[in-house]
Protein: Prolyl 3,4-dihydroxylase TPA1/OFD1 N-terminal domain-containing protein
Organism: Moritella yayanosii
Amino acid sequence: MNQFYINLFDYGDFLGIHSDGGNNIGIAINITKNWLPTFGGITHIIDQYLNIVDSLTPTFGQMFLFDSKENNIPHFVSTVSTERSGKRMSIIARFD
């Protein structure tokens, strides 16, 4: 494991379009409970034309696996639009 951290998104936070480049495997585990799609903070997978092809609402315990060795998967996280006390959080780990 070469990286391990917690992502925290608060009201107004977002993550612009990017690809998790490099020669590694990435794992994201959602640790936010009771998150609704209306709160924002949705991970959107896009194609080369910037069309959204999949949307992933954070669900507690849900895990995403990104293989940056084989795939270039552009994605972004929409703006968090709620000021609720619980934040959108996920555990991120990257392996060479």
In short: The mean pLDDT is 91. The two ends are 7 Å apart (CA to CA). DSSP finds no helices and eight strands in the chain.
